[in-house]
Design brief:
The protein is built from five helices and twelve strands. By secondary structure, it is α+β, with helices and mostly antiparallel strands. Strands 1-2-3-10-5-8 form a six-stranded antiparallel β-sheet. α1 crosses α3. It starts with a helix and ends in a 9-residue tail after the last strand. Bound molecules: 2-oxoglutaric acid and fe (ii) ion. Fe (ii) ion (FE2) binds next to loops. 2-oxoglutaric acid binds next to β3, β5, β9 and β10. InterPro entries: DIOX_N, IPNS-like_FE2OG_OXY, IPNS-like_sf, Oxoglu/Fe-dep_dioxygenase_dom, Plant_2OG-oxidoreductases.
Length: 253
Amino acid sequence: MDAMMSASREFFRQPSGEKQKCSNLIDDGGKHSEVEGYGNDKVVNQDEGLSWNDRLHLRVEPEDERNFTKWPTHPESFRDVLLEYASRTKRIRDVVFRTIAKLLDLDEDYFLNQMSNKDPGFARFNYYPPCPRPDLVLGMRPHSDAGLLTILFVDRDVGGLQVERDGKWYNVPAKPYSLVINLADCMEIMCNGIFRSPVHRVVTNAEKERLSLAVFYAVDGETVLEPAPGLLDDERPPRYGKFKAKDFGLSFD
Ligand SMILES: O=C(O)CCC(=O)C(=O)O
Ligand SMILES: [Fe+2]
């Protein structure tokens, strides 16, 4: 974990020109951007406000779709460290899926069986510079994660992540060597809302920079999502319909 965080810190500390070698902008004068690479998120709606962060977004799954041209070459260790890190988060993902299935009295492999070897996984390195006016701008605006599961490695010293419940925001503490596991929208659907995909945001800090790394596991656009039949009966009707992930933008493809 230390190696992953220091590789990330080293990447973001480089001069802008070096980071732009991994840019997410498409070569058309910077008018369009793609999901992968270094930069900022695309602003879809002017009213949503900007987020005070830089990010590097890299596909880690499926293995044969990794695009190493977007992966940093500095620090030199970056690629190997991320490959090792991603292989471990994938194992954690599987343990969490099995545990959730057991908690719900489903077949242990129910969620794993819903997945295909085309399902995407993305590593998103977030860098939040110190912000002179934390009262005016968020590090990341409120959202829920769209996929199945997010494994989030938060900064060991600097807090900022908050989770919403009943209209109130609660701080998620910064803690060394801890991972925050976030259930995302597609899992909420498959769990028929028994487990919820939380709305969360990041507040800025006036003095300190903050780093985090989210690994998102999602589903292929063709995956048909529906509440697990084993969770439904007359008293517990489905809260969600059946649909393809891509029809609701619930995939990264
Ligand atoms: O930086 C954090 O702690 C949260 C990041 C996050 O929510 C995301 O990347 O989706
Ligand atoms: Fe998130």
